[in-house]
Design goal:
By secondary structure, the protein is mainly alpha-helical. It is built from 25 helices and 4 strands. 48% of the residues are buried.
């Protein structure tokens, strides 16, 4: 792992040379502003596309619009940009986890264009994940341009993500919490100050160019009684069930599309056309669905309980078809729509079952449903709480938000131990959070801890000659190699041959090949050190031979490995840049 050296470049102001934190704050402001502008650019482009295509929605062939958008989006990503489709946030998390936040320059715009084509044409997805990818890539490339070290680059990746979320939602607190809770996975004072400043910068550029508007502000004041707090438990269960269904259905749809033998662009078009067909019957599933959320929070959604349930399931299906079959976009906005439908349906069910109780306006339950859905699918309760508070201004239901978010996260976790963003990374072993054993060991290579002072011996060597070799060595391990080819064929460990060593009658009758271990546990340069350490624990051994192309390279010992681990842990947890 790189050591965290300070940034030095000729001509830099002396105050920056003194305090790298001040430098990160200043660069973080720039990253936040750029990320905010990227978010506004996508938002404006989506509005333009939706307005332009609105007059064509009533034609019979309108289902071809989302099909064409998804087709163009997939071709743009896979053929022109050479990236995979989907939402992209796991790639950012993986980059932070394994590569110090390194992201390609093309990621600053690729997801913006692809998601604009998908969502603007009517595909069911959200613009939030693409702007997170874009903002993170902006931070990463600015850090690379200035030759920042790894820790500084990760901080600027966080600044980009925070600025993007803060801008698109006009929610600076949510930008900070989303970044710390999901993207970086740690709460560090070193990171939080630049990220907070970047988040504020992203929100301010949005307010300056778009106005200080709350996305889903409601004029209704919600007054909750004890009955409502009890009902929140049931709402949390509903939101958890919706989160689990959405997570599993989206993953299943992706697996189904992979099994279909068709060109990727045709699969994306089929997914888009299917969404368009669903949109004929239930228009609320089209696009990101913000207009529908407005209606539900305001309490003016006219359709009944059955339509609310169908709308919830239809949005899950439409988003799964869009993203699972090759479209581009995020799950934030669809999750908000699904949560609103779930909350609305739950409220109407309560009214039907308990008509004598004076229930609060249904918009309150739509709002709480959004919090439960976001908290459940992301397993990030703070993000769910503060997002809903900032985008709705519903501070009068804060206690209920906390209850629903906390319970939804907990219940979902039992069914899905990893969140939607982290599930694939966790299952493939690619998720390495800061400060964890796997992350620390991942930054150490076997070549850094290999010990090469072992003396190889020949299989034809007599025990007497071997004992003479032992006297010259400081090791307890001796690799056995073929004399002509140098190929590794076995290992001798002194603890295992003590009966031979102390029996002098065997000195001239026993050969090394007779007492060596012909099938020892070995490791290679390609092995992860976390796996090596696990193998040592399972086999109860303190050293293992490293074999490369059939030849003995050296030994790796647990003592040396743990010493290096301690040094690396000190570097990674250091609060200085």
């Amino acid at each position: 792992m790189k050591k965290f050296t300070s940034w030095r470049r000729p001509g830099t102001f002396s105050i920056f040379l003194i305090d790298d934190r001040l430098l990160l704050i200043c660069i973080g402001i720039i990253v936040g502003l750029c990320s905010g502008l990227a978010a506004l650019a996508l938002n404006s482009s989506l509005i333009f596309m939706m307005d332009s295509l609105h007059n064509f929605r009533h034609y019979w062939w309108a289902f071809l619009l989302p099909a064409t958008g998804a087709l163009c989006s997939s071709i743009f990503l896979k053929k022109i940009i050479k990236e995979d489709s989907g939402h992209g946030v796991p790639e950012v998390i993986y980059s932070v986890s394994r590569y110090g936040g390194l992201l390609k320059f093309r990621s600053t715009f690729s997801r913006l264009v692809a998601s604009c084509l998908t969502i603007g044409s009517g595909g069911s997805a959200g613009p939030e994940a693409p702007v997170v990818v874009s903002g993170s890539a902006i931070g990463s490339n600015i850090a690379t341009f200035f030759s920042f070290n790894e820790r500084q680059r990760i901080t600027l990746v966080g600044c980009g993500a925070a600025g993007a979320i803060a801008s698109i939602f006009n929610a600076p607190l949510t930008g900070i919490i989303f970044t710390m809770e999901i993207i970086l996975g740690e709460w560090s004072m070193v990171n939080i100050i630049p990220i907070a400043v970047a988040s504020v910068a992203g929100a301010e550029i949005s307010r300056h160019l778009r106005g200080n508007i709350i996305a889903f502000e409601s004029s209704t004041v919600f007054h909750l009684s004890n009955y409502h707090f009890i009902a929140c438990v049931g709402l949390a269960v509903c939101a958890s069930v919706a989160s689990i269904i959405f997570t599993r259905y989206l993953r299943a749809m992706h697996k189904v599309s992979q099994k279909v033998i068709l060109p990727f662009w045709l699969k994306a078009a089929i997914g888009g056309a299917s969404v368009g067909a669903i949109g004929f019957v239930i228009p609320e599933v089209m696009g990101e669905g913000y207009h529908t959320i407005h209606e539900m929070i305001a309490g003016i959604f006219k359709e009944g309980l059955g339509i609310a349930v169908i709308g919830c399931l239809a949005k899950i299906l439409a988003t799964s078809l869009t993203l699972g079959w090759g479209g581009s976009g995020g799950i934030f906005a669809p999750s908000l729509v699904i949560g609103s439908f779930a909350g609305l349906a739950y409220h109407r069910l309560l009214v039907y079952l308990f008509p004598s109780i004076a229930w609060v306006n249904e918009g309150c339950f739509a709002l709480l449903g959004m919090a439960g859905m976001i908290s459940g699918i992301l397993q990030a309760p703070l993000t769910g709480i503060f997002l809903i508070l900032e985008i709705t201004g519903g501070y009068d239901v804060m206690l209920s938000l906390i209850v629903v978010s906390a319970l939804s996260t907990t219940i979902t976790h039992y069914a899905e131990p990893a969140s939607f963003y982290l599930k694939e990374l966790t299952e493939s072993g690619k998720l390495l959070r800061p400060g964890t054993d796997s992350r620390v060991l991942a930054d150490i290579s076997i070549r850094e801890v290999i010990e090469k002072d072992c003396i190889p011996v020949s299989p034809n060597m007599l025990l007497r000659e071997f004992i003479h070799t032992v006297k010259q060595s400081t090791r307890n391990y001796f690799p056995v190699e073929e004399p002509e080819s140098g190929k590794f064929i076995g290992m001798i460990q002194l603890d295992q041959i003590k009966p031979y060593i102390f029996n002098t009658l065997m000195y001239d009758t026993v050969l090394v090949e007779q007492i060596m271990d012909t099938n020892p546990e070995t490791v290679s340069y390609d092995d992860e050190l976390s796996d090596v350490l696990r193998k040592m624990d399972m086999k109860r051994c303190f050293s293992l031979p490293v074999i490369y192309n059939g030849r003995f390279e050296g030994m790796i010992s647990k003592a040396t490995l743990l010493d290096k681990y301690r040094d690396e842990l000190n570097v990674q947890t250091s609060h200085s840049f």
